[in-house]
Write a structure and sequence with these properties.
heterodimer; A: alpha/beta; 5-stranded parallel β-sheet; 18 strands; 17% strand; B: alpha/beta; 7 strands; binds iron/sulfur cluster
């Protein structure tokens, strides 16, 4: 019996010929990602060294990436002080892959990693952020861990005591209909398998739709794999992966693709014919509460959000700008746009998308996590409703437990901005 | 071990509910407990009142701790010495709990209401108030090893010393 992609990568990284689900391994880490929660990782890292007589030095500064994104620019003196402490640690440890609060190099960590070529096929990527699953889009095995686990990674260079997970094969077939995007596919998938349907499992993406999808679209699916509870979501690397690595990420000498065996043992398969999908909406307050847009059309929304590590990339902004071009955001709502990185911000500026948004009445914010997690910028009022291209709609997520968040694609968000109600983007020109 | 059920929750309680994002700049385990369930005023007040004895049970449904990897969600509950009994627990939260030494018990069929007294045995939970014994799903060996080591910090410290010794 052959190996799934996750099993192949874990075997390679653990120096074993093969592994099976349930085996305990300690894979060597290629990329260790943190954001502002590095403040807690630093505390725990120092704690590990307590009483050992050893100097607290990270195992490999070049393998660590730190990105300020969750609270940029700092929303409080407490955050600013945490950021200062992290900067001092970064300087003392010689960590160079540090993305500051900057208009040129900054952005959301899950956009910074791919666009800078930090992630390659076959790698082990761990991050102190649950959406670290995003990097599976490039054929890496990538998962979220807590701060103490990251402290152990910084000290040891490996992830302690990892249980090899089972893998579910997700087969996506068919051509995406007009107005239906990768976000709709992943929302449908989560609705189908449930918020814990893939708990302790890896989702491995196959099928003609997956192969035809751009890396940008694959990033959306891998990003939201965790919303089905998955440890990781992974796409076998192919021509498109290497195109992205070369042309977008500037990687001149990429690692070769690792592929699952054709007789790999999957726990089960989940097949979806995307040609039959209509735009999807995740309704409050769980991501698996998914309905076709036709069932919730007309729901008034007071805030529209386009951005985040899920849907703040250039193609997302392009689709939204195309819908808003020459039109106005309805007076009954407000629209916030957060490009996922400084680079995307700049490209959207050059291509006129930001002008389109501003002319329509949207507010273009700096790149970063923005209101996605309800810390600053764009909190909701009591009883208000938002429609957002982000990835979570848990109660309180956008800063107010007495508000509601619906999730959708950038096209649905833009079409809805024109009406102030949840709107089917396929209505397009009639809006 | 006997333990009283002090609070009962439903399914899919996310880490945004357990520890809202706006308090994430607070990281010290001595400071996080005050923000546990900060948006659930009743429960937050009860916890802060000091009336919940360490070793009390917080009972949840399926997928407890889903969402963000924020470790504060585990550290804030550990601060009150709570035992988490849930029908199922999301991976990252469970791993964080094990790493930090927050006690968790996965018990798929558990039944009980606030005020019930449980007896937690190695293989099952007995509801002493209402009767019934409910089997426990044991921790996977990878996580049990960390629990036996007293949490991830001592485990990692030992591994570090081993690595240095081998070098
Ligand atoms: S954009 Fe939202 S989901 Fe993505 S990393 Fe930031 S807070 Fe997390």
């Amino acid at each position: 019996m052959g190996a799934t992609l996750a099993e192949k990568i874990l075997a390679r990284a653990s120096g074993r010929p093969s592994v099976r689900p349930g085996d305990i391994v300690e894979p060597a880490v290629d990329v260790a990602l943190s954001h502002e929660n590095a403040a807690l990782v630093i505390n725990q890292f120092r704690e590990i060294y307590q009483g050992t007589g050893l100097e607290a030095k990270v195992w490999a500064p070049a393998n660590i990436v730190i990105v300020f994104d969750h609270r940029v620019p700092a929303e409080s003196s407490k955050t600013a002080t945490n950021q200062k402490k992290i900067r001092e640690f970064i300087a003392a440890q010689g960590i160079t892959k540090f993305h500051e609060i900057r208009g040129d190099e900054g952005g959301i960590c899950h956009q910074i990693l791919p666009e800078n070529g930090y992630v390659q096929p076959g790698q082990i990527v761990v991050g102190t952020d649950s959406h670290t699953t995003t990097h599976g889009a490039l054929g890496a095995l990538a998962w979220g861990i807590g701060a103490t686990e990251m402290a152990a990674v910084w000290a040891l260079g490996l992830v302690p005591n990892v249980e090899v997970p089972l893998t579910i094969k997700v087969v996506l077939d068919g051509a995406l209909p007009r107005g239906v995007y990768p976000k709709d596919v992943v929302l449908h998938l989560i609705g189908k398998i449930g918020a814990q349907g893939a708990n302790f499992r890896v989702l491995e993406f196959h099928g003609e739709t997956s192969r035809a999808m751009s890396t940008s679209g694959r990033l959306v699916l891998a990003n939201m794999a965790v919303e089905a509870g998955a440890t990781a979501g992974i796409f076998p690397a192919d021509k498109e992966t290497f195109r992205y690595l070369r042309d977008v990420a500037g990687v001149t000498n990429p690692a070769p693709a690792m592929l699952p065996d054709s007789d790999a043992a999957y726990e089960k398969a989940c097949e979806i014919d995307v040609a039959r999908l209509e735009p999807q909406i995740a309704c409050p307050h769980t991501v698996d509460n998914v309905k076709p847009v036709s069932q919730v059309e007309g729901t008034p929304v007071q805030q529209i959000v386009i951005g985040s590590c899920t849907n703040g990339r250039l193609d997302d902004l392009e689709v939204a700008a195309g819908i808003l071009q020459g039109k106005k955001v309805a007076r009954s709502t407000r629209m916030l746009v957060f490009p996922a990185s400084g680079r995307i911000y700049r490209e959207a500026l050059d291509r006129g998308f930001l002008k389109t948004f501003m002319d329509a009445g949207a507010v273009v914010m700096n790149s970063g996590c923005g209101c996605c997690l309800g810390i600053h910028q764009g909190a909701l009022g009591d009883g208000e409703t938002a429609l957002s291209t982000t990835n979570r709609n848990f109660q309180g997520r956008m800063g107010n437990p007495n508000a509601a968040v619906y999730l959708c694609s950038p096209a649905t968000a833009a079409a809805s901005a024109l009406t102030g109600c949840i709107t089917d983007p396929r209505k397009g020109d009639s809006l | 071990m006997k333990a009283m059920l002090v609070h009962k929750l439903g399914d899919d309680i996310s880490t945004d509910v357990i520890y809202p994002g706006r308090f994430m700049a607070t990281v010290l385990p001595t400071e996080t407990p005050q923000f546990a369930f900060a948006d659930d005023l009743g429960f937050n007040t009860l916890l802060k009142s000091g009336k919940v004895a360490p070793g009390s049970v917080l009972l949840a449904g399926n997928n407890f701790g889903c969402g963000s990897s924020r470790e504060q969600a585990a550290s804030c509950l550990k601060g009150y010495g709570l035992i988490i009994v849930a029908q199922s627990i999301a991976r990252i939260f469970l791993q964080n709990a094990v790493n930090l030494g927050l006690q968790t018990v996965v018990c798929p069929k558990i039944e009980g209401v606030e005020g019930d007294e449980f007896e937690i045995r190695p293989t099952g939970i007995v509801n002493l108030t209402r009767g019934g014994t409910f089997p426990i799903v044991p921790h996977a060996p990878a996580r049990q090893a960390l629990i036996d080591a007293g949490g991830l910090i001592p485990y990692a410290r030992n591994r570090l010393l081993q690595q240095v010794g081998q070098a």
